[in-house]
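Sample intake sheet
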Amino acid sequence: MTELALRPATYDDLLKVPDHLVAELIDGELYTSPRPASRHARASSILLAKLINPFDSGDGGPGGWWIVVEPELHLGANAIVPDLAGWRRERMPVFPDAAAFDLAPDWLCEVQSPSTARIDRVKKLPIYREHQVQHVWLVDPVDKTLEVLRLENGRWVVAGNYGGDDVVRAEPFDAVEIDLRALWI
């Protein structure tokens, strides 16, 4: 009897995935998913619009952040692509000119979809914890919810659960109000 030895996926395997798919390398496994559907794309686009001016540009808010759409994060042996990520400029004073980020973000957002929610929660959250990401937002455009997680003493703590037509001040961007109605179709 011959045993089939499965090898861990590599970054070279990730690079071979067609451009129309999002590819991630998590714990030696290659995950692919289709480009976001309309609800998902709408939620992440509007959320970016709500955050970019006050926090990245400093228009109408405190500034002090770099906020990026779908950055490739190299966290240990993992190559992960969250929907949005942000770094405090005090930790990353110069925005890198690179294809991927080796410095873990301070905040990130995963917009949930049926094909990615389990991976986001079961596979990615432990990696984000290990790499000291301080806040994770989980946005569900179907259920119209925002779950805010904060890292405390190496554990995820729910810092807030919001939904529907709530107007929120959510960590770490609580300097401005966000009307969640704008995120939902």
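Comment: The longest strand covers residues 155-163. The chain has three helices and twelve strands.
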